[in-house]
């Protein structure tokens, strides 16, 4: 499968000042700059960090590779790779605990990796072939945390978001609770990222008057991305959302 991913997801570099973000990008079949396409940003988990510009494709990239997906939902799909020394979300991580301890610090500003992703998205969405009312973000684990953070930092950019086994700062949801469709997934047996973190985010959105979609798998541990990617209407739900 990685061979097919290598072929369709093209290797790219995004350079800003002295910092570099490696990423992969897949264009729709018969891509034309004269047409317009939705944009999907996918943020990987901590285990896929590195500098090979490949490992970030391990989970999620095949979701967009099937003929059905490419024909039904022609889109530009972006998989950036976070360096080993960085993190998508601004958070203190205590791995001595089980589940891990997480202290989100959005107020300290974004990480370098997140800053580069936001700049890359600004550049991508500014292109004439980008459907500005159909820009989406999804992510798992560390990428789920990054998803919660990027919709807080750039709520005006996204038409919908999907978070999988992530978490965030519940106080941040005021930026998007009423305006951004969100589907939150978690495994009830997750012993890496506490499912209570997703529950807290969903509760905060409800308290702010939002209507999040929430799926808690009673059988799943941390790899709740497996049943998530198997959801029949996952992409149908995502691509049905248009920014008002």
Shape: globular
Helix-and-strand structural type: alpha/beta
Estimated share of beta-strand residues: 25-35%
Instruction: State the name of the first-level CATH class.
Output: Alpha Beta
User: Low-confidence parts, pLDDT < 50 over ≥5 residues?
Assistant: none
Task: Work out the number of β strands.
Answer: 10
**DSSP helix fraction:** 25-40%
Distance between the termini: 37 Å
Q: Name the CATH superfamily assignment.
A: Alpha/Beta hydrolase fold, catalytic domain
Count of the separate structural domains: 1
CATH architecture: 3-Layer(aba) Sandwich
Arithmetic mean of pLDDT: 96
The radius of gyration is 17 Å
**Biggest sheet record:** 8 strands, mixed
Order of secondary-structure elements = HEEEHEEEHEHEEHEHH
CATH topology: Rossmann fold
Would you write up a description of this structure?
With 244 residues, the protein is an alpha/beta fold. The protein has a single domain, classed as Alpha/Beta hydrolase fold, catalytic domain (Rossmann fold). 26% of the residues lie in helices and 26% in strands. The protein contains seven helices and ten strands. The chain has helices at residues 2-8, 67-72, 112-125, 142-153, 195-207, 225-229, 234-240, and strands at residues 10-16, 19-26, 37-43, 76-81, 91-94, 101-104, 130-140, 160-164, 182-187, 213-217. The strands form two sheets. It has an eight-stranded mixed sheet with strand order 1-2-4-3-7-8-9-10. A hairpin with a 6-residue loop joins strand 5 and strand 6 (101-104). It is globular. The model has no long low-confidence stretch (mean pLDDT 96).
């Amino acid at each position: 499968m990685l061979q097919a991913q290598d072929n369709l997801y093209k290797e790219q570099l995004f350079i800003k000042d002295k910092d570099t973000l490696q990423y992969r990008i897949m264009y729709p079949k018969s891509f034309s700059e004269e047409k317009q396409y939705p944009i999907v940003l996918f943020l990987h988990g901590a285990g896929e960090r590195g500098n090979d510009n490949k490992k970030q494709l391990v989970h999620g990239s095949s979701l967009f590779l099937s003929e059905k997906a490419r024909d039904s939902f022609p889109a530009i799909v972006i998989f950036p790779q976070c360096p080993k020394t960085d993190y998508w979300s601004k958070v203190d991580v205590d791995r001595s605990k089980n589940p891990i301890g997480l202290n989100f610090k959005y107020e300290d500003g974004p990480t370098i990796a997140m800053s580069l992703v936001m700049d890359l998205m600004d550049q991508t969405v500014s292109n004439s072939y980008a459907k500005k009312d159909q820009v989406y973000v999804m992510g798992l684990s560390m990428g789920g945390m990054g998803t919660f953070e990027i919709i807080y930092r750039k709520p005006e950019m996204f038409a919908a978001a999907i978070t999988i086994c992530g978490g965030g700062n519940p106080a941040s949801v005021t930026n998007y609770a009423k305006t951004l469709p969100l589907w939150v997934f978690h495994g009830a047996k997750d012993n890496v990222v506490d499912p209570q973190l997703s529950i807290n985010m969903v509760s905060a959105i409800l308290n702010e008057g939002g209507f999040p979609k929430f799926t808690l798998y009673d059988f799943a541990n941390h790899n709740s991305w497996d049943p998530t990617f198997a959801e029949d209407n996952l992409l149908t739900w995502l691509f049905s959302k248009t920014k008002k």
